[in-house]
Write a structure and sequence with these properties.
Order of helices and strands of chain B: HHHHHH
Structural class of chain B: mainly alpha
Oligomer: heterodimer
Shape of chain A: elongated
Helix content of chain B: 55-70%
Strand content of chain A: under 5%
Order of helices and strands of chain A: HHHHHHH
Largest interface: A-B, 54 and 40 residues
Largest sheet of chain B: none
Radius of gyration of chain A: 19 Å
Strand content of chain B: under 5%
Number of strands of chain B: 0
């Protein structure tokens, strides 16, 4: 069966947009970077190795493009529409509690160095294996695990700090 | 003792069955580590929840315009190797036909000299 290559590229678009948005904090910027990455990919089609997979190749190009762009203009202040966050099966009952956790994650994410943030997004959000993530960033699996470990620790620390601050605020309110 | 890297691999579904079982057994006895792994999985869940709605967006026209410029046929692949293989096969065939007509027959091997040497060796060794 012949695979429609253009269709394969199209299927990756939502994930490419999501990754670029999560890295840059701006949907407009993410879309521009996806366009530029597609142009770059098309001009380098002769370098595409079908054995390594289209997804890894496209993410690798987009990731490099995002890094170049972020070096010139760092991440924009992020606006997350918390009301629009999808909670899957957990349902609206836990929504308030989950909003707090979501904000923790967003705050934590934006404090991470880019090299840790991209790994957390590739593995945690996009579901890349360690080996695929290593291919995308051009590093070893050991480096991926090490950065992932530091990123997760940092997120946890931010969540704990937020929790402590919330408890302190509660004590002050109760004391009034 | 389970290394932290193994716990990350466990949380991300990267372990084979044997190692997975080993980590599961460890976590069952170590609630602190179990909470860590749950926390990492929750982080991934939260990231998907936060950025998930982007997947539902319609793709902007400027991006679709770029996609339409891609070829329908997958680049690379088997086209060039098949062509090269056919070329080599053809060249081999022609060379074979040429040699079959032009190289003189190899003289038949003379086994009598080998038998003579073997007989000498046997007699010296006393077989």
């Amino acid at each position: 069966m012949t695979v429609d290559f253009r269709r394969e590229v199209k299927d990756e678009l939502p994930y490419l947009r999501r990754f670029a948005f999560a890295l840059t904090g701006s949907m407009n910027r993410a879309d521009d970077l996806v366009v530029e990455s597609l142009q770059r990919a098309r001009s380098r089609l002769h370098l595409f190795d079908p054995d390594n997979g289209l997804r890894t190749w496209l993410f690798s190009i987009l990731r490099n493009r995002c890094l170049e762009a972020l070096a010139k203009h760092p991440v924009a202040p992020r606006h997350i529409d918390v009301a629009n966050v999808s909670y899957g099966e957990s349902g609206p009952v836990h929504a308030d509690m989950e909003h707090v956790m979501v904000l923790d994650v967003v705050r934590g994410l934006d404090t991470l160095p880019l090299e840790q943030k991209e790994i957390l997004l590739l593995v945690g959000m996009e579901g890349f294996t360690y080996e695929e993530a290593a291919d995308v960033i051009g590093a070893t699996v050991g480096t991926v695990i090490s950065r992932l470990s530091r990123a997760r620790k940092r997120l946890r620390t931010v969540a704990e700090e937020n929790e402590r601050q919330a408890q302190d605020a509660l004590i002050i309110v109760e004391g009034v | 003792m389970i290394a932290e890297s193994a716990m990350h691999s466990f949380a991300d579904g990267e372990l084979d069955d044997d190692m997975k079982w080993e980590v599961e057994a460890w976590l069952a006895d170590h609630p602190g580590d179990r909470a860590l792994v749950q926390d990492w999985r929750q982080q991934a869940h939260d990231l998907q929840a936060i950025f998930g709605p982007v997947l539902e967006d319609s793709i902007p026209r400027k991006i679709m315009k770029e996609v339409r410029r891609f070829p329908r046929k997958r680049p690379g692949g088997k086209t060039v190797p098949v062509f090269v293989a056919l070329l080599l096969f053809g060249a081999g065939l022609i060379a074979g036909l040429f040699l079959a007509k032009n190289v003189p027959e190899v003289a038949a091997f003379d086994w009598s000299s080998v038998k003579e040497i073997a007989a000498n060796v046997q007699s010296k060794l006393g077989f």
